[in-house]
Amino acid sequence: MFLVDSHCHLDCLDYETQHKNVDEVVAKAAERDVKYMLAVATTLPGFQQMKNLIGKRENVAYSCGIHPLNLDEGYDFEELARLAADKEVIAMGETGLDYYYQKDNAELQRTSFRKHIQIGRELNKPVIVHTREARDDTLMVLREENVQDCGGVLHCFTEDKETASALLDLGFYISFSGIVTFRNAEQIREAARFVPLDRILVETDSPYLAPVPHRGKQNQPAYVRDVAEYMAVLKGVSIDELAEVTTKNFCELFHVDLTEK
Ligand SMILES: [Zn+2]
Ligand SMILES: [Zn+2]
């Protein structure tokens, strides 16, 4: 079996008390058949630090981008384009809109979001989109910037079935995290049942949001296995089938070839 954690913040795990180092985290993941992961950036300096910490590995890919909640410092669009052009970078982001935690800079969030899509289209790299309480604006920006040209994924999906439907119409993939296993997440489960198998990805978003049965612990890529097992039951397929299709989806979206791995 080959599972992919399509979204983790590998650089944010606790290497003081929980893990020895990145090698150990990657090994723990492999023990549970999680054999590839996408390490997602949230700032440009953070992107560089993440690359330094993790290094070049055949089972870790990178994204490059600025999280909508990290815009206070400002950043240089040219620098984003330059860093994102790196061969190891397979995606733009995470970008998007978060009006739940910050609404006073909504205009700036939209501008940054648009910029990520524009660069993604130039480089032919898909966007990883974060959205919270910003459903309409998120869809508006995606449509206006012709996101179909580079494609993308709505990560850590917490919206409803109708939003999933609108995203599918844009050619998007939908990534489900440990939230889908939470007791009060019936709306997300309804959306998960609705999204066709060939558009589903699974992720941890670690170190946040550990899935059942690891609630209260720090999340890590190994736990994407628990998300995948839960999703398999929801979709009425075997874990092997869910692993196979989500890995295939990941490869298609991000233009990576994992057949050798
Ligand atoms: Zn996010
Ligand atoms: Zn994230």
From TrEMBL:
**Among the entry's GO cellular component annotations, what is one?**
cytosol
Q: Does the keyword Cell inner membrane apply?
A: no
Q: Which domain of life is it from?
A: Bacteria
Alphabetical UniProt keywords: Hydrolase, Metal-binding
Residue positions binding a divalent metal cation 1: 7, 9, 94, 205
The answer on whether this UniProt entry bears the keyword Cell membrane reads: no
The name under which this protein is listed is: Metal-dependent hydrolase
Q: Give the organism the record lists.
A: Xenorhabdus mauleonii
GO MF assignments: DNA nuclease activity; hydrolase activity, acting on ester bonds; metal ion binding
* Family classification: Belongs to the metallo-dependent hydrolases superfamily. TatD-type hydrolase family.
The protein's matches in SUPFAM superfamilies, at most eight in alphabetical order, are given as: Metallo-dependent hydrolases (SSF51556)
Where on this chain does a divalent metal cation 2 bind?
130, 155
InterPro entries, alphabetized: DNase_TatD-rel_CS (IPR018228), Metal_Hydrolase (IPR032466), TatD-like (IPR001130), TatD/YcfH-like (IPR015991)
